[in-house]
Amino acid sequence: MRLTSEKELKYSEPGDRFTDTPASEFLPASDPTLCAILEEMETPATVDEITDQLIQPANPPIETWADVHERLYEERLPDLEASGEIAFDRDRGTVTVLEPDADGHTIATRVLVGAVSILVVIVLFLVI
Questions:
Q1: Where is this region: Disordered (predicted)?
Q2: Mind spelling out the 3-state secondary structure of 33-65?
Q3: Mapping DSSP to helix (H, G, I), strand (E, B) and coil, where does residue 25 land?
Q4: Which stretch of 28-37, 43-52, 109-118 has the lowest confidence by average pLDDT?
Q5: Quick check: is 91 in a domain?
Q6: What gap in Å lies between CA 118 and CA 100, rounded to an integer?
Q7: pLDDT tens digits for 62-82?
Q8: Which residues sit opposite 107 in a β-bridge?
Q9: Which of 50, 77, 107, 108 is least surrounded, with the fewest CB atoms within 10 Å of its CB?
Q10: Is residue 35 assigned to a domain?
Q11: Where residue 100 falls among pLDDT bands split at 50, 70, 90?
Q12: Which domain holds residue 39?
């Protein structure tokens, strides 16, 4: 093995086609696109499996794979969970796509509407 760049600490074998492909080339630009990819996968799926799915069939340096994994874990998946599209278990590193109801709303949406409705009833009760 030879060091290709001391600053980046990326390695390649002699004869390998080394490319410094940024992680952004493997991450979908939009959340709906990422959701569509997750919906095609069997869930629950691990962040590792999602990263592999996004990177295939390319074979980038391990650092690129790790960067894609980190961006999913730290940014993209928590954002999708906050929007109610998925359930993301950070401790286990698993993602489950939430099934929408007949109206196209996820369970999280229904829970939020229910909580707001209860809050409104309580406020009205206290005011009246």
A1: 1-25
A2: HHHHHHHHCCCCEEHHHHHHHHHCCCCCCHHHH
A3: helix
A4: 109-118
A5: yes
A6: 22
A7: 999 999 999 999 999 999 999
A8: none
A9: 107
A10: yes
A11: low
A12: 24-97
- Sole residue written with tokens 């991450």: 27
Percentage of the chain modeled with pLDDT above 90: 47
Q: What is the mean pLDDT of residues 77-97?
A: 92
> For the chain, what is the domain count?
1
Report helix, strand or coil for 9. Answer: coil
Sheet holding 45-46, edge to edge: 45-46, 94-97, 86-89
| C-alpha to C-alpha distance for 97 and 43, rounded to whole angstroms | 6
* Region of residue 68 (left: phi > 0; alpha: psi -120 to 50; beta: else): alpha
Task: Evaluate whether residue 71 is within a structural domain.
Answer: yes
Task: For residue 117, give both structure tokens.
Answer: 């409705």
